[in-house]
Structure formats: structure tokens, C-alpha cells
Design goal:
This protein is of the alpha/beta class. It has helices at 3-19, 43-50, 54-64, 88-97, 128-143, 159-169, 176-180, 183-196, 198-212, 216-240, 259-268, 307-320, 336-348, 384-402, 408-428, 440-443, 451-467, 484-494, 496-506, 510-529, 539-560, and strands at 26-29, 38-41, 75-77, 81-84, 109-113, 147-151, 272-275, 278-287, 293-299, 326-329, 357-360, 366-367, 436-437. It has 4 domains: 3-86, Arginyl tRNA synthetase N-terminal domain (Gyrase A, domain 2, 2-Layer Sandwich), CATH 3.30.1360.70; 109-154 and 254-360, Rossmann fold (3-Layer(aba) Sandwich), CATH 3.40.50; 159-241, no CATH class; 390-560, Isoleucyl-tRNA Synthetase, Domain 1, CATH 1.10.730.
């Protein structure tokens, strides 16, 4: 149950009744304990519109509001705010009911376009943010009952593949498997030849023509390269715990046959203009600094197509075949103009129906300590496999120091969960539109807003049940919050649905991270103030139930971020 939405509905109805107009309330979690659990505003704006004293209007709202079944008597504060404190009985019954997160949700079919590596080489740190942010969003949307269609729009077409095929042709059959084992080295070798050997560059361009015209040998060699490259991607996805498989592939090549149709559609709509031999779309809202129109090139002068044409074909497919209500694109912020133009062209050409939501959710860059894009010490790109290896190695050292009595196998498993989780959470906990500095010490800390801190909070609760010789998975008891810290923890547990709905609506996973950190901190305050195992019944069971609910919520929330937990650390 989304408690805030329920309060908004109830208080909003009372405000409309009291003001005589449609006046929605704005209920927010209270910023300070003395304000109660939530605070409602909007009264002052409504009072100004109707020429009434805000406190008098607030009094009428209190009289009209039907919240007796969930809140204590409302309190008027300041010039016209309402402080709302939830009843302990409401907290207890709502937590016990554990209503599905999807209750009351207007369900949609949502396409999430994320990860999208270039299959010409191995995945590197530049692919991390798209992959894990998109995956977290897909998980949250599914948890809320939406139909989610994952689309991995991998780059598997174009000139660079002609270059790779030409280089592969020159490698003996016996050596090809060894050469392809390290895609990054293979790519650099092919690129070096392409840049320095005109004869090789000509053969590479010819290979592209053969590939695009359906030459069987070229396509067979291309497919072999794609399979090797996808195997590298799948290894990274498995280690990251990312829910992407080959069934989610939506490669550039899959739209190749649709590209002429896109151009024909744009021509039929009267949107195409020729410029220096290229076919372009010019829209009034896109101009350069001099006020000259910016083109969206859909076919080059040599007859080749561009990313814009492919993205328009993808929109048409997602509209006509996937019946999407909403499409979310996770790419870096530098592609902002591209997507604004593509969405505008799609709308003008009626490729996307009115009401279909096309949303670019950009993200900032991962930076090194020097404030520059994160690189190796030698200045090269960091492969994701190497980054994850180092994360596990560093986590293993911390685990061994913290709990040296664990056997080797358990230390390795905890190191895997903590290391991978730390990398993912360090990214997800930041506002995705911002750049952030990659800091090993900070992300692996057991203090602060980090994955290890939350994972430890979970394992700490589970250890409490082990100490009490209680089976947490089958334990059940009525929650009866009486102490302030119990009440505060109960309210925090109720907030998960509203946080997830905000994440789903705005596309910012860091809201969920902030909530989980707040929940873990609130639990610590509760645990320090309220003895659990030593308390008398029925208080002991009530507090154990609060602890158990907290552990389940932490695990569930981390799971929605794609982060695992462990039973002990």
C-alpha cells in the first residue's frame, strides 16, 4: 500500500470540499520528528485562491478529513500545515497484510533499452552505468506489476565490422580461436591496420558491402565474431547479476531491412529534404547557435544509413510489434540532443502514437580521482571483467580481516557478493544525471551509504535470530509499536511502495538507495534503544517481527537494485 498516495487522496478530498474547488493536497514525509510522520501542505495556496485565512481553511480540512482509521487526530502547524501521525494499529495491520507492490498501479507495457555495448570489442567501464541502472529500473517496474520488455540494442553493424572481418580473413584458421579470445587486442590490431594500410582499408569497406548485401561467407564470419563477443558480454552480465539474455537482444542489424521503409515513410509525410546529396529532416525547434536548422540525417549521400534511421526503426517496431506504452532509453548524457531529435521526428512522422512515452534517461560519467574519465594507469579503457576482478580481490581482503574464522569457500562467496554489490551500489546510489568519482575505499566501506553497510545490516538481523535459536523464515508475530523508535521503524517500513513508485515514475534508482540507507539507520536507532531478545513477551515477539520485516525489506530492496545479500559477514 502506498500510504502517502492514500493520505493525498483523503486530505485532497477534504481540501477540495473545504475550499469549494479541486485543490490537491501535497503530502510529504515529515522532515522532523515533531512534525509527525507526514506533513500536508497545499492549504495555503488554496486559501490564497479563495481569499481565506489558511489556518481557518486548515481547520475545515481537519473537520472534513476521513483519516480516523489510519492516523491520530490531525494537528495544524504554522501558517496552515497539517501534521499527520499514523496510528500504531494501522502500522501493525498494514505491515502484517504485506499487500503486493502492484496494488493500485496503472499497469503499462514498458520497454527498457539499456546496456547496448558495441560488439566490436569487450565491455568496459563506459558500459557499466547503462547496464546496471537499466537493470535496476527493469526490476522495479516488474515489481510494480508492469510488463517489462528488455531491449539490448547492441552495436553489431557498420564499417568497424568490415574492418574486423578483413582482419579475421587474414588470420589462419588454426589461430582464429586464439586471436578472438581477447577481443580488445583483436580490435586494436584491426584498427591499426585500417588506419595505416590503404589496401586493408579498401578490403574492409568491401567486406561491409558484402555483409550488407547478404554474402553468405561474410555473414558466416560475422556471426562467428558476434557469438564470441556476446559470450564475453554474457560473462559480464552473469557476474553483475544483470537480467539480460540473448532473447533480449535487439541489435542494430535486426532493423536493417526496415531502414528503407523509414525513409519512405518520412518522404510520404513530406519531412524529407535533400542536402548535399543526403536525405535529412529539418525541424524548427532544432537550430545551432547561429540559428541555422540542424539536420537529422536519415540517409547519407552514398546511400548508407545512420544511427538516427535505426533508432526510428526501433521506435516503429516497439510501437507496432511490442505495443509499448512507454520506452526508456539509458545512455550517457552526450546523446541528449540525438534523442530529442529522434523523438521529435518520430512524433512528426506519426511513428509513435500520441500518448506513447519516449523518455531518454541520461547519466553522467564515471571519473577517476583526477576528475577525468576513469582509465587504467596507462591511460587505456578499463575492461569490466578487470574491474570486477579487483572488486572481489579487495573485498576478500576486507572479509578476511573482519571475519578470519570463516573458511576459504565462504570468504570467497562473501567477497564476491560484497565486491560486486559495492561497485553497483556506488553507482546506483548517485543521482544518475551527475558525474561521480570512482573511489574503492568509499564504496567498500562498512560505514555510510554503501552496499557493505546495508548488507551488514541485513546479516546482523539474521544473526540476531540465530543467537535466539529462532527460524526467521517461519517466524510470525503481531507487531505492536509503542516506543517512539518502534513507531519510526514501522513507518519507515511502510514507505517502500511510495519510494518504488517514485523510482518508476522518474527513473532515478538512487531514491531507493537513499530509502534503504535511511531504513538501516532507523533500524540501528531502534536496536540501540529497544532490547529485543532480552525483552519480555509480547514485546519480544513484536520487536522480533519488526526486525524480521526490516531484514526482508532490505533484502528485497537490494534485490531490486540487482544486489545480493549474505547471511553473515
Amino acid at each position: 500500500m502506498n500510504v502517502r498516495a492514500l493520505l493525498n487522496k483523503r486530505i485532497g478530498a477534504a481540501l477540495s470540499q473545504a475550499s469549494g474547488a479541486d485543490s490537491p493536497a501535497a503530502v510529504q514525509p515529515a522532515s522532523r520528528p515533531e512534525f509527525g510522520d507526514y506533513q500536508a501542505n497545499g492549504i495555503m495556496g488554496a486559501a490564497k485562491r479563495i481569499g481565506m485565512n489558511p489556518r481557518e481553511l486548515a481547520a475545515q480540512v481537519v473537520a472534513a478529513a476521513t483519516v480516523d482509521d489510519l492516523a491520530e487526530p490531525l494537528e495544524i502547524a504554522g501558517p496552515g500545515f497539517l501534521n499527520i501521525t499514523l496510528q500504531g494499529s494501522f502500522i501493525a495491520t498494514t505491515l502484517a497484510a504485506e499487500a503486493p507492490l502492484s496494488a493500485g498501479i496503472n499497469r503499462q507495457t514498458v520497454v527498457v533499452d539499456y546496456s547496448s555495448p558495441n560488439l566490436a570489442k569487450e565491455m568496459h567501464v563506459g558500459h557499466l552505468r547503462s547496464t546496471i541502472i537499466g537493470d535496476a529500473m527493469a526490476r522495479v517496474l516488474e515489481a510494480l506489476g508492469h510488463t517489462v520488455i528488455r531491449q539490448n540494442h547492441v552495436g553489431d553493424w557498420g564499417t568497424q565490422f568490415g574492418m574486423l572481418l578483413a582482419h579475421l580473413h587474414d588470420v589462419s584458421d588454426a589461430d582464429q580461436s586464439n586471436e578472438l579470445a581477447d577481443l580488445e587486442v583483436f580490435y586494436r590490431a584491426a584498427k591499426g591496420r585500417f588506419d595505416s594500410q590503404p589496401e586493408f582499408a579498401a578490403r574492409a569497406r568491401a567486406a561491409v558491402v558484402g555483409l550488407q548485401s547478404g554474402d553468405p561467407d561474410a555473414q558466416a564470419q560475422w556471426q562467428r565474431f558476434i557469438d564470441v563477443s556476446l559470450a564475453h558480454c554474457e560473462e559480464v552480465y552473469q557476474r553483475l547479476g544483470v537480467a539480460l539474455s540473448r532473447t533480449d537482444l535487439a541489435p542494430e542489424s535486426s532493423y536493417n531491412d526496415s531502414l528503407p521503409t523509414i525513409v519512405a515513410t518520412l518522404e510520404q509525410q513530406g519531412l524529407i529534404e535533400e542536402s548535399d546529396g543526403a536525405l535529412c529532416v529539418f525541424l524548427d525547434q532544432f537550430t545551432n547557435k547561429q540559428g541555422d536548422p540542424l539536420p537529422v540525417i536519415v540517409r547519407k549521400s552514398d546511400g548508407g544509413y545512420l544511427y538516427a534511421t535505426t533508432d526510428l526503426a526501433a521506435i516503429l517496431y516497439r510501437t507496432s510489434s511490442l505495443n509499448a506504452d512507454r520506452v526508456l532509453y539509458y545512455t550517457d548524457a552526450r546523446q541528449g540532443l540525438h534523442f530529442r531529435q529522434i523523438f521529435a521526428v518520430a512524433s512528426a512522422a506519426e511513428l509513435a502514437p500520441e500518448g506513447m512515452l519516449l523518455e531518454h534517461h541520461p547519466f553522467g560519467a564515471m571519473l577517476g580521482a583526477d576528475g577525468k574519465p576513469f582509465q587504467t594507469r596507462a591511460g587505456g579503457v578499463v575492461r569490466l571483467t578487470e574491474l570486477l576482478d579487483e572488486a572481489e580481490t579487495r573485498a576478500r581482503q576486507l572479509v578476511a580481516e573482519k571475519n578470519p574464522d570463516l573458511d576459504e569457500a565462504e570468504q570467497s562467496e562473501i567477497a564476491r557478493v560484497v565486491g560486486i554489490g559495492a561497485v553497483k551500489y556506488a553507482d546506483l546510489s548517485k543521482n544518475r544525471t551527475s558525474d561521480y568519482v570512482f573511489d574503492w575505499d568509499q564504496m567498500l566501506s562498512f560505514e555510510g551509504n554503501t552496499a557493505p553497510y546495508l548488507q551488514y545490516a541485513y546479516s546482523r538481523i539474521r544473526s540476531l535470530f540465530r543467537r535466539g535459536d529462532i527460524d526467521a523464515d517461519s517466524f510470525a508475530a503481531e507487531i505492536s509499536p509503542t516506543e517512539p523508535q518502534e513507531h519510526k521503524l514501522g513507518v519507515a517500513l511502510l514507505r517502500l511502495p511510495e519510494v518504488l513508485e517514485q523510482v518508476a515514475a522518474e527513473g532515478f534508482p538512487h531514491y531507493l538507495c537513499a530509502y534503504l540507507y535511511e531504513l538501516a539507520t532507523t533500524f540501528t536507532q531502534f536496536y540501540e534503544a529497544c532490547p529485543v531478545l532480552s525483552a519480555d513477551e509480547p514485546v519480544r515477539s513484536s520487536r522480533l517481527a519488526l526486525c524480521n520485516h526490516t531484514a526482508r525489506t532490505l533484502k528485497r530492496g537490494l534485490g531490486l537494485l540487482g544486489i545480493e545479500t549474505v547471511e553473515r559477514m
